[in-house]
Every structure is written in structure tokens, then in C-alpha cells.
Amino acid sequence: MNARSRMLLAGTAAAIAVGTLGAAPASAADEASTVRPETKVAERTNPAVQAVVTTYSATVAQREWTLAPAFNDLVTLAVQKALTGGIGADESAMWDYITTRFARDPDSYIKTTGKSRSKSYELQAVGSAFVLTPDGVLGTAAHVVTADEATKEQFASMAAEEFSTADMASLELEELDLSDEAITAMQKAVATYNSTHVKVSMKTPKVEVLMGVAASGGTREGKPVPATVLASSAQDSGEDTALLRIRGYENLPTVAMGDSNTMAVGSKVYVSGFPADATYIQGMSEAATLQPTISAGTITATKSTDSGVPLLQTDAKASPGSSGGACLDESGAVIGVLVSGAIDDRGVSVGQQFCQQGQVLQDQLRANNVTPSTSITTTKYNAALDDYFNHYYKRALPAFREVKDLFPSHAYADRYISDSQTAITAGKDETPSSSSLPLILGGAGAALLVLLGAVLAVVLRRRRKRTAPAAQVFPAGAPGNTYAGAPSTAYAGGYPNAPQDAHFPQQQPAPQDGHFPQQQPAPYAPAYQPAPAYQAAPGPEAQPAPVAPDHLTAPVPAQPMHQAYPQAPHAPQVPAQPGQERPAQPEQPVNAPFGFGPRGQGGVRDL
């Protein structure tokens, strides 16, 4: 290696050595890179993901009835058959014949009176939603906040069971010599008649958003905020999205809308919401109840309904209560709305969920002149999270305090302020010191001087070479001397490029807010079961009822393929006793499973 090469290499080495003095430790960035993607997406989006409670109210009325003269004719016919040997001659056999015929066609043996009776009921459903604008527009699934025929059937079933209890008591069948089979047949007949002869009057549903706000100790509590349904997909459209509006807020934490068209099979996706089976558990604190659940998965297929509505199929876990939750890409942007899940012929989930693509929600936003936007609260909060994950606690602390000033009710700012202070006190802060800047600049200047000196030396040597006398030529074998100033070897290819200014390693930016993916129907329980059979209202452990294949989320008792998820646990209704007035219904969830959602083929139920 010649002197010039050695000089250039030495200068380069010096530049690198000096340029790296005072650089920020790599450990912080290295450790920050170990933060799981799910953690970053969850921490960025949790402030904007909210629980929704919808209260459905209805009054169910029916005209009172009694047995018609035709029933007496039926009794006479039974006696005649017994006398002629057509049936057994004992009383039990005759009543079996009577109840069997009655059960086949109860309308033929019943007549109404001039009186009427009515009952009022409430059902509560829990779903999920996410904030899209700083002033309070949220996205969710339509079936989370609107009632359909399945809801009416549920109310009709509840009233029919209660009416049937009173009717069976008035028939005084216990005084007759009836077999168990005969009594069961009469109960079913009465329940069937009552369930098909009631009028359900629905009131406008009351929708509330349980806004996650700051509580003592840095936890999250729910503040019920009334919401209006700004827009909702038509039930026969195949779409299942809705927009909610809450008032009195500004600078709300938000999630950003992403581009669902970029999602392909194999793309990473996250589902965030409030699955009832993991959220509303007895013994859990309120803070735990209001903590969104996020699950990771991939896009397993891209599909569409028979009406052309685009769907993203994913294996990310979800269950009833998740409906209306956000389907998110890796940056945390919303690329879909969770609406339903696939089930087998027994009503058991097969681990595949469906999200209506974000473009459906985007169209609804445009149609209602709503422009989704990221709030300044979220912009500052995400930047603070980036610093926090990099262990730049001194930089993150004032940023989280600014978030708190922008939105005092922020559910997570207090916790991060406290955690940042604790980390600083424990000596864990790795924020780059501003005092290192002069050292960095000085090192870069020194490196530049070394390089310039090396280049200047080479240029001078080349000039000397041009002015030196020609070397003498001697006969072969005679000693010869080269001119001392000439290079001893040929230097081909020119000088090596001078090194570029050294850059300090930049921290890896955390994913930017983006789009997010309840609700398959609520907990796995029977959805709207009309009461063809005389039986008690389904309790908390009731099994899901089969659903007709023509309705994706509202199960019909006859078919097992489509079961709507109950949105929330419902307290069983207590049948009215003869001669007693039923007390007013308490405002608490009724344990009657129900849910509704995408309308389409069987094998899918709302979440």
C-alpha cells in the first residue's frame, strides 16, 4: 500500500471514529424494536375504541281469549269415540285425544274476548365502535344500533311465555286426569297461539357510547354518553355499517381510515373491540371491563356477499360483543368493520370472522358529508408513545402532559405520565443529550479537516510529478534510479470517494395511526327464539338457537345454520302468576340472546 492510500484510509478511519463520538446509545432503539407490533397497535388505538350499549324497548299486546264452543264439541267427539271403541274408555285416553287435536289447530278451538293485555320489556345489547373525527363521529356495525325482525321475535317470545303461564293456570288442567304427554301438548299449543297472536310495538332504540375516560390510579372507566344514529345501512342492502354522533367533545382520540384495497390474502390484521365473553365477566373490575381486547390474525380470503358487498375474511379471534369493532392494518388504520363470524351446523364458531371492507364505511362517510381526520390529541399521543417505547422518557413526559392538556379525560395519558416519571427516577432514561451536539459537530469538522489534508497532500505530489525531469535510461543490466518524486507504482482508477457525513442512527418510527378492522352476534347463546313451545325464558346458560340460512345474523328457530350472537347477557323474564300484576321490568340486561347483522347466507352469525 502506497503512502497516498495509507493517508486516505487513515483519514477515513479518523472521520468515522470522531464522527461517532457522542452518538446516542443504540440500546434504546434496539430495545424499542422488541416492542411487539400488537402492543404498538393496541396502545395507539385503544383510546379511540369504545363500547356501545343499545337499549331496545317494546310493548307487546294481545287480546285475551277463552275456549270456543268448538272445544266443547271436541270433548263430545272424544266421548263418542270412547263409547264406540275408537279410543280408550278411560278419562286419560279421552283427554289425550282432545289435547292432541287441540294442539294441531288451536285457532279452531279458541275465541278472543273484548279485553286486552300487554307487557313492556327492555333488552340491552353491547357492541363496539371507534372514533373517526375529533368532534365525535364513530363507526360501528348497523346491527349493533338498529332493531330488525329478530328483535321483535324476541320480544314476542318473551310475552308469549308470560301470557301462556297465566293461560295454563286459568284452564285448571291440574284438576283433570291428564298424562304428562297431554299436558306438554297443551302447553305447546297455547304457547304457539300466543306467540303468533301478539302485536309488538317497538320504541326508538336508546344508544349510548361508554366513553373510556381517565379514572383514579391511571385506569379507564366508562362514561355513558348519549349517541344519535347519524346513518345506518338498510337491512336489505347486504351492508352492515353505521355512523354514530356524540356531542360535547373536541380533540377526541381518533383512529385513521386506511385503504382496504391494499389488503391481500396473508396480510396482517388486528381486531379491536369488546367481546362479551372476555369483557363482561363477574368479578372483573370496571377498568378491566372497559379495556378493549385486541387479537391478531391474517386475511385468509377476500370475498363478497351475493349483493356484491366486499368482505375481508380473517382468522383473528372475535366473539359476540365484538360486532362493530375495528379491523386494523399493521399501522393501526381501519380497513374494515367486524360484522359476523362463520359457524358450523351446530352453531359452533369455525374460527373465521368477516369484516365489511373499509370502502363501505368510506362511502357512508362521504354520503353524510363526514371527513374522518386524526385529532391533534392522537398525533401528539402517538409521538409520545414513540419516545416512550424508545426509552426517551424525558422527552415523552412533557408530550404526554400536553396530551392531557388537549384532552383532560384521556384514558391513558395519566398512566404514561406516571410511568415516565418512575422510569426517569429509576435512571432508565436514554433520551439523547442536547450537549452531545457540539461534540458531534466538532467530530465531523475534525474528520473533514483530516480528509482535506490528505487530498491536498496527494494533489501536491501529483504536481511535483508533472514538473520532474525525465528519468535517465541505462543499458540493460546497468543500475538505474527513478526520480525520487515519482510514484513507485502505477495508480489506476483514481482516488477513492471521500466518505459521506456520518448520520446518527434514527429511531424506528412506530406505526402511524391507520385503520382498524363484536361483532359477530353477542355471546354464544340462542338468538331470538320465538316461543312455539311452552317453556321458561332462556337463561344465561341457554344454548344458541338455530337460525334460518336466509338471514346472516338473526337466527330462526327452525334452521341451525344462522345464529345471531346475543349482544349482552339478559336477565330472564319471570312469568306472571295468575291474579298478580307483573312488576315493572328493571333496567338491566335480559339474558335472552339476540343479535342481528349482515343479511345473507346461512352459516354466519353476528358477533
| Quaternary class | single chain
Number of strands: 14
CA-based gyration radius: 38 Å
Largest sheet: 6 strands, antiparallel, barrel
User: Any idea what the shape is?
Assistant: elongated
User: Portion of residues in helices?
Assistant: 25-40%
Instruction: Tell me, rounded to a whole number, the average pLDDT.
Output: 75
Number of helices: 15
Strand content: 15-25%
Question: Which strand order do you get reading across the main beta sheet?
Answer: 1-2-3-7-6-5
User: Which stretches of 5+ consecutive residues score pLDDT under 50?
Assistant: 2-32, 465-602
In brief, what are we looking at here?
The chain has 607 residues and is α+β, with helices and mostly antiparallel strands. It has helices at 3-19, 26-32, 37-45, 69-83, 91-104, 142-145, 149-171, 180-195, 276-279, 286-289, 358-367, 376-389, 393-406, 413-425, 436-467; strands spanning 49-67, 110-131, 137-140, 199-202, 206-214, 220-232, 242-245, 268-273, 293-304, 310-314, 326-328, 334-343, 349-357, 604-605.
Give an account of the 3D structure.
The chain is an alpha+beta fold and 607 residues long. 32% of the residues lie in helices and 20% in strands. The protein is elongated and about 135 Å long. The two termini are 74 Å apart. The model is unreliable at 2-32 and 465-602 (pLDDT under 50).
